[in-house]
């Protein structure tokens, strides 16, 4: 009985850090050797990090990645190593290299290039047109890359017909809510349909607005989960795969036999025979059970990962956050503290004459619960000075949003002053509901280097805060209960100026995330006036969103890479 020991290197790579990524890969290879692994596979474009975007237009970047590949090959003695890299032939390809005993023994080029949502691979890569099989002692293993496995008719079908028992699919599949289950269900279908075991290794960690969740998985030919990596954590996932058992299952099922009878081998199929002997193992790797996280826990973990990696990978240590005593700044500060540690988070209270005593108390209580340092910089005198300087120009005009925005911009100036002086990066605290309808001030509460809650609707903000408090109660209960307010004028309430957040968020989800026509939203039972009000606000605030800091993507339709609307745009559904 042949058992192939497979390792999946679920690693957190950094785009452009070719040297650092290479060191991680080599370290993981050494660890896999200690476990007597036969094969170790790493994520898509593991050497360069994903997505490298326009770095791919730099020949020096491509050449350095090729040099790194040769260095990794030197570490592949007596272990088959599969690693994602950028190949250069007459063009460049998103590729997987097979390394063994210091040599590059095979290269597979990704056949299907995604060019939707956050993906732009057609911009950079040539599409591959060959299908690769590795032959090890008569057993066949198919290679594929990410998008290749998402199509019903894909390289996996041909590899199975050609006799593959195992498919290794390397990935950089970014997280969004529900993606993990959707991905796992798809892999189970592919495995059952093709009577093969599938090993799916995924990237983990944050890269700008994207977060990769890991969740690497190995599925048996019956769709059963053999093992699974943890979400949002680096690890080497190990599994023993019984290749003989898979072959026996294939013999008992007529589907492959019937397909083979009709199949005419194409020239594009490349079968590479490897001079490699599968190691005899005295002990079997025990199967482990990884329980899926509840959705709200997964979202919270994604946000923590996104903050941690954006700050650390960009060379920052500390962040500064304006603490208003509201739910958004409280959750942002909590996530930042969980991601970076209490000593690396600074809170700034900037009360005005409209700030309630309760808001100051809540902000201070939050800071005490988190253990973060705070500073108090009142803005009332500065605000009065601004108004005094403008009084002649504004003579005869009533106060309006201008005066409200002045306060927000004073606060933004103070936060940026601290950022400049001490090198702290400002975390913006606005949420997706506000950004959708433009309920935010340019150069005011929108300032910052990173927006933690940019893709989190207000109703989800409350859910996340309640979830975090279930672990340890750090956000004051009053923050969860009081009506949200910008506190820029007397008795101001967000929902008086917008809509109740549950209704507002439903309309935003339908219009922004699902691209549903306005009339269809109204037919679902929403008040026409409310729908039209929200849609008009969304449409006219594209210019504002374009100037907002980037933030963590947690939905399938986030502002930025996913939803790209022209700022200058006369089309309206209304």
Automatic annotation (TrEMBL):
Keywords: ATP-binding, Ligase, NAD, Nucleotide-binding. Deamido-NAD(+) binds at residues 405, 434, 544. Pfam families: CN_hydrolase (PF00795), NAD_synthase (PF02540). One of its GO terms (molecular function) is NAD+ synthase (glutamine-hydrolyzing) activity. SUPFAM superfamilies: Adenine nucleotide alpha hydrolases-like, Carbon-nitrogen hydrolase. One of its GO terms (biological process) is NAD+ biosynthetic process. L-glutamine binds at residues 116, 173, 179. The keyword Nucleotide-binding applies. ATP binds at residues 322-329, 429. The active site is at residues 44, 110, 146. Residues 4-243 form the CN hydrolase domain. CDD domains: GAT_Gln-NAD-synth, NAD_synthase. Its EC number is 6.3.5.1. GO terms for cellular component: cytoplasm. Pathway: Cofactor biosynthesis; NAD(+) biosynthesis; NAD(+) from deamido-NAD(+) (L-Gln route): step 1/1. The keyword ATP-binding applies. Belongs to the NAD synthetase family. In the C-terminal section; belongs to the NAD synthetase family. HAMAP family: NadE_glutamine_dep. This is Glutamine-dependent NAD(+) synthetase. The gene is nadE.
């Amino acid at each position: 009985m042949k058992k192939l020991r497979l390792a999946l290197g679920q690693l957190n790579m950094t785009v452009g850090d070719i040297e650092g990524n290479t060191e991680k890969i080599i370290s993981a290879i050494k660890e896999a050797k200690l476990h007597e692994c036969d094969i170790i596979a790493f994520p898509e474009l593991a050497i360069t990090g994903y997505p490298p975007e326009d770095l791919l237009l730099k020949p020096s970047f491509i050449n350095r990645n090729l040099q790194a590949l040769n260095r990794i090959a030197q570490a592949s003695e007596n272990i088959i190593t599969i690693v994602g890299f950028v190949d250069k032939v007459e063009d460049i390809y998103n590729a997987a290299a097979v390394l063994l005993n210091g040599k590059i023994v095979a290269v597979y080029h990704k056949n299907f290039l995604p060019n939707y949502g956050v993906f732009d691979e057609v911009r950079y890569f040539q599409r591959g047109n060959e299908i690769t099989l590795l032959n090890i002692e008569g057993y066949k293993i198919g290679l594929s890359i990410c998008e290749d496995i998402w199509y019903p008719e894909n390289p996996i079908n041909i590899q199975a017909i050609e006799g593959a028992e195992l498919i290794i699919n390397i990935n950089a599949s970014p997280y969004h809510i529900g993606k993990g289950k959707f991905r796992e269900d798809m892999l189970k279908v592919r495995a059952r349909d093709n009577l093969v075991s599938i090993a799916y290794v995924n990237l983990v960690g944050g890269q700008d607005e994207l977060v990769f969740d890991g969740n690497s998985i190995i599925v048996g030919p019956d769709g059963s989960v053999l093992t699974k990596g943890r979400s949002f954590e680096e690890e080497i996932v190990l599994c023993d795969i019984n290749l003989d058992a898979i072959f026996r299952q294939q013999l008992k099922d007529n589907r492959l036999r019937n397909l083979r009878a009709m199949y005419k081998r194409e020239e594009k199929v490349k079968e590479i025979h490897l001079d490699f002997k599968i190691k005899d193992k005295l002990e079997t790797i025990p199967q482990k059970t990884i329980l899926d996280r509840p959705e709200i826990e997964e979202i919270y973990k994604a946000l923590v990962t996104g903050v941690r990696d954006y700050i650390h990978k960009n060379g920052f240590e500390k962040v500064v956050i304006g603490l208003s005593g509201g739910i958004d700044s409280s959750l942002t500060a909590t996530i930042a503290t969980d991601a970076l540690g209490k000593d690396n988070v600074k809170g700034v209270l900037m009360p005005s004459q409209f700030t309630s005593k309760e808001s100051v108390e809540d902000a201070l209580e939050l800071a005490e619960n988190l253990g973060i340092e705070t500073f108090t910089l009142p803005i009332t005198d500065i605000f009065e000075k601004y108004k005094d300087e403008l009084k002649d120009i504004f003579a005869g005009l009533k106060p309006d949003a201008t005066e409200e925005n002045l306060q927000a911009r004073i606060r933004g100036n103070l936060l940026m002053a601290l950022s400049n002086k001490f090198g702290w990066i400002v975390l913006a605290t606005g949420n997706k509901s506000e950004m959708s309808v433009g309920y935010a001030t340019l150069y005011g509460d929108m300032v910052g280097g990173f927006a933690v809650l940019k893709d989190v609707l207000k109703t989800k903000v409350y859910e996340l805060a309640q979830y975090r408090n279930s672990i340890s109660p750090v956000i004051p209960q009053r923050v969860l209960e009081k009506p949200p307010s910008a506190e820029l004028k007397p008795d101001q309430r967000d929902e008086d100026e917008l809509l109740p957040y549950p209704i507002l968020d439903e309309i935003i989800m339908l219009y922004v995330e699902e691209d549903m026509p306005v009339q269809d939203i109204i037919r679902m039972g929403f008040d026409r006036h409310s729908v039209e009000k929200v849609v008009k606000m969304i449409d006219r605030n594209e210019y504002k969103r374009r100037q907002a800091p980037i933030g963590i993507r947690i939905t399938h339709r986030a502002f930025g890479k996913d939803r790209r609307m022209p700022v200058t745009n006369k089309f309206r559904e209304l």
